[in-house]
């Protein structure tokens, strides 16, 4: 039986003037480009116009709605993923799978034991995983994927449903993106939920290996106040997964409201931005992911481009680990570097270190700060030198470069000598700052500047937090 909508399209074509273009007479390539600009709701209507139009509109519709699949680890949600992956049109356009590591709590034993992170009195419902149903469904999904590609990107995102918080009992996580099966899962989880990030990552990798599918990109998003990682469980899992990979992989790790690490193997590029994240190993708040092992796993291969932004760091040795010998381009922006004593030549030592990288050809520096010490939240900030401690109205001091500006760019074949000259200038400026402060018995200027350098009129050098890079 002839489709009435298709017949209507045919009538339009036969009755129209040969010089008048209609929707159905436009080339497929042109319609495809037009439909990419159409709103999602209108794409749904276009797919009802005719079989011809529906066929063309289905591609942008599939890319927009099924390119990145988001699911929770439940039977209902995984069956939805299986159905979409098996669809003759939609399945071919799935490029990544994002799983929420949320699990329903089946019981809470009293009293809760907050001292033992491995056994805290929370019983998680893992029956779907232990029964083998997750593995069975996932293998069917991956079998469908293999018909279109032998590689896929996977992600784990801590942003879904109710979750259990040790200190706040039960709280609601903000929802930014809908996960398939989320509403039903939330309704069923009357006791609340917890994040099982390490287990979810291990499950995904195990199923990918069993299906002989390569992972070309791994994305992990961690909640700011997640209680998963007090003993570094997620950190160890990521390290283990990176060690076991048999091919290059793009990596993105985002700490919600804190920062992001991105590594792209084709561009040999490592980018990292954060705010107060690089904590000392002995810091009590070591529940955030420390980067030492992750960076070492990534930099065992050549990294040509390094971009570091918004780091608050009290350990110069940690930053040194980023300056590997293969670098060609380095960008440092809004760095807060501190030390027990201001007279440790912080940035001059860093520039000297950069000057020894053999293939470096481009270095951009922007707003480099010295973070001053503060004993308590109510006490004034202090500059500590060998001779004593001196109060400051500002929490940071800002390096002024030899041209009088707060940003500096170095490039060319003689970049090594330029960096050595900058190191010498900065060392002199740092020593002058100590002399000036000790003479005045206080920090009277928030800038660290060499003698005879005119300071150009610019924005207020006082450090103010910038918006984090989240993309």
TrEMBL record:
Entries under InterPro entries matching the protein: F-box-like_dom_sf, F-box_dom
PROSITE patterns assigned to the protein according to its UniProt record, in alphabetical order: FBOX
F-box domain span: 20-66
Pfam families assigned: F-box-like
Name of the protein this chain belongs to: F-box domain-containing protein
Organism: Aureobasidium mustum
